[in-house]
Amino acid sequence: MIKRTILLADDEKNTREGLRWALESKDRNVLLAEDGEEAIRQISANPVDLLITDLRMPKLDGMKVLNRVREISPETTVVVLTGHGTVESAVDAMKHGAYDYLIKPINIDELNLLVDRILSNRAMAEENVELKKKLDSRFGFESIIGRSDAMNVVFSRVRTVAPTRANVLLYGESGTGKELIAAAIHQNSPRRSRPFVKINCGALPLSLLESELFGHEKGAFTNAVRMRPGRFEMADGGTILLDEISETAPEFQIKLLRVLQEGEFERVGGTQTLRTDVRVIAASNRRLGDLVDRGEFREDLYYRLKVVEIDLPPLRDRQGDIPLLVDFFLEELSRFHGKPKPRVAPRAMAALQNFHWPGNVRQLRNAIEGALVMTEGDITLRSLPAELRSEKGSDLYLKIPIGTTLREAEKELIQAALIQNSGNRAKTARVLGVGRKTLYRKIEEFELD
């Protein structure tokens, strides 16, 4: 149980001592201040959850104390004490940020009820903040690793579209993190407290896909022994991710279009029309516009899905992010397998950066996990899968795609040179033909390590 700190500020000793006797308990620590200046000193020195202050005090009155507390400790809740003749001052204090006021002489039962309510609300708010941190850590931007220009564009578009109701169409090769981006959009939206539901449309036959998304009634087909709600019902008020939307059949696309247009559907085998309020995020590794041109995807559904499009870059186009991803995976996987986190030798890191990664981030993670499990000590070039060792990347190449900005190219070149020279900055500066001060400034500018 967290022990809460309450500060009582009153120039009357009997009042201070009496209130401390009434409020102190095993989960409350009560501090005392005999004037406004002492109250400010105590709050500056100790975290205080609740300040209960008289309005009339020497040196600093309660209103000045309130204003100072708003500056130095805005998280502290303030309750003011006042006499019958100064209730207007107490109301004015509430306008300036006080939570409530009590009239002297203090009713102890009323005081305890007020303090219980304040501390309970504070505990609930802290729990919500902690839960949000955990959710953001799991589904927010912290779980998506990348500092490259290409990923910064993705982050910018996600931040812009997340608070809106717009449907989103994600493009990216397998393993580029479409599900993570969809989760980040949901978690940073007003729908975050509602369900985030996902389904791989390409993994199910048409009949089963309809049942999964729309649900079915008892007896709708063989083995339908009971009614089952679908994913659209489960996601009501939240977000649904339709992965591999390009693999759906035309007859299914008609039913999906109705949900997007009208928010209505029927369960398989049912007649009752159900309504749902769902944000749809669709994902595909094929361009839906090309499929529309070939008559393989409905044009009206395409335009419903593509309100906002976000392209996820393949790993080969963001080589500068590979050291960050490797470090993240080693941290995570070392804990999972109960092994010390190893160092990655420069030639091994160069091979990792220069491999073409057809399986993208998912393939990189698997390669790192295999090297970690099978290697004692540092991860060297020999620790990596054979296909990485046979790549030209093992010979310290740096491939920079056409379209990379000069700033990003400079960043990747410096990072690759640091890796090649095992982090030796003096040697790296000589190789790059720049002064050490220039290199140090660039390392700080690009946040390289």
Measured distance between first and last alpha carbons:
40 Å
Number of spatially distinct domains: 3
Q: What's the arrangement of strands in the largest beta sheet?
A: 2-1-3-4-5
Structural class: alpha/beta
Largest sheet: 5 strands, parallel
What do the pLDDT scores average to? Answer: 85
Task: Say which CATH homologous superfamily of the largest domain is assigned.
Answer: P-loop containing nucleotide triphosphate hydrolases
Total DSSP E strands: 14
Portion of residues in beta strands equals 5-15%
How large is the radius of gyration? Answer: 30 Å
Q: Please, how many helices? A: 19
Helix share of residues?
40-55%
The parts where pLDDT drops under 50 for at least 5 residues are 135-139, 391-395
Principal-axis shape equals extended
